[in-house]
Fold this protein.
Amino acid sequence: GAGVSQSPSNKVTEKGKDVELRCDPISGHTALYWYRQSLGQGLEFLIYFQGNSAPDKSGLPSDRFSAERTGGSVSTLTIQRTQQEDSAVYLCASSLVQGGPQHFGDGTRLSIL
Amino acid sequence: KNEVEQSPQNLTAQEGEFITINCSYSVGISALHWLQQHPGGGIVSLFMLSSGKKKHGRLIATINIQEKHSSLHITASHPRDSAVYICAVPLMPSGQFYFGTGTSLTVIP
């Protein structure tokens, strides 16, 4: 597709389960970003990849969160032992170069019961 | 302390009015981004600018690097402009983005 694709679009899971969120950036985009938006709140930066490398992982909320990117393309955000406060919309964006205009996916709405 | 401050937080305007949203930041940046989040949640990048002014249709963005301030203007506002407008600055080399809290705009017919 032409845009950033995220899957699943919705995920409902029980507290304590692990979840994996996927992002397919626009082909050729070297920069990839993960954000979180809790209900009624602003955007929160989680992590950025340049190619397959993440220069700074300090934005991840806790050590239950991890992310990787392979082949300079697809990225996965994994949340282990989910908690109710993890409920949010997780957004992925990509840009051709670092700091450039970003193209956002539609997000994954994660609900932890 | 927020690295990026936006004002106003909420704005209601009559159709046709000229609208200004302001953004001030405290970190050194190479560029500033304006984003639009539609009521359905989708986010669109409106502008990326590092100096001067950019115009796209009825939208105009300006930035003053020395004063660390940017404005987003909407001329001849229309109800379809109703959205949340977000100012964002990237911090290099980490790639981390700082976001303003957003300005919720409602344009009434």
Summary: The two ends of chain B are 37 Å apart (CA to CA). The mean pLDDT of chain B is 92. The first strand of chain B starts at residue 4 and ends at 7. The interface with chain A takes residues 30-31, 33, 35, 41-45, 48, 86, 88, 90, 92-102 of chain B (CB under 8 Å).
